[in-house]
Amino acid sequence: MLKHGQREVGVRLKEAEKTILKTVVIHYLQNPEPIGSVQLKDAATLPHSSATIRNHFRKLVQEGLLEQLHASSGRIPTARALEHHWQEQLQPQEPIPIGDLEAIGALALEFELFVLLQPAWQNRLRSVHAIGAQLLAASFEEGVATLPASTIVGKLLEEFIGYDLADLLLIAQNNRIDALSGALTRLRASQTLRYNEQALIAVAARWPQWSARFFEPFFDGSIAAGQKPGLFFEPLAPEGHMVILQEARLKNRPIRLVTLGPTTRDYSRFMNHLSKEGR
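RESULT FIELD:
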């Protein structure tokens, strides 16, 4: 079953066509320029003649997987082909180790991606205190949420001592306790690590309709809440982009890794570098 934001890319191809398509995609990810049949044969040492490759090119163009920008140019993969490639290559359900946080920031800049890390371990409510006559402080195992003083909310929170932050936030949202929901959302956002925020801002500036719906959830980390690991395309990502929600571990603690960027980035290499940093 497809999750929200995912789009199935049904492709039935012969093995030779699959090999050629994969080769074109990998070449394009490493060198974003069109490639012709002769160049492809030489670069990948394919067991096909240039004429045979051109025949497969025509089939792949008909299937909407390759395109030719100019009559004299080679082929490049379409957005559909890139989506299919990543659905085949990435396994976000398998947790990966995350290591040096500074290295993550460097990789986000190198690959021009927006990367978000959100703690997935439990953060239980420990106590509730009135701070003077104006504030209520909910103290968690990690962090404190403050909100305007309210006897009703204070008594409610006391009943939920020992509950996890994520569960309390869901209760507040479902019951429309806006002040509590806002305070818990701010606490969660403060514990969320963001890398290369300029990449997110650039996407938001180019696709304002997408931004109006999704910028804030990506920025505060709520995009990861309640979502299962997977690859996501439109509408969760703008046209030509993708989102990876990946299970990960940071110092043996569970964490959610969210990556947003164009489908033309080399996500396999990005994930390999991340995993190496965590070993």
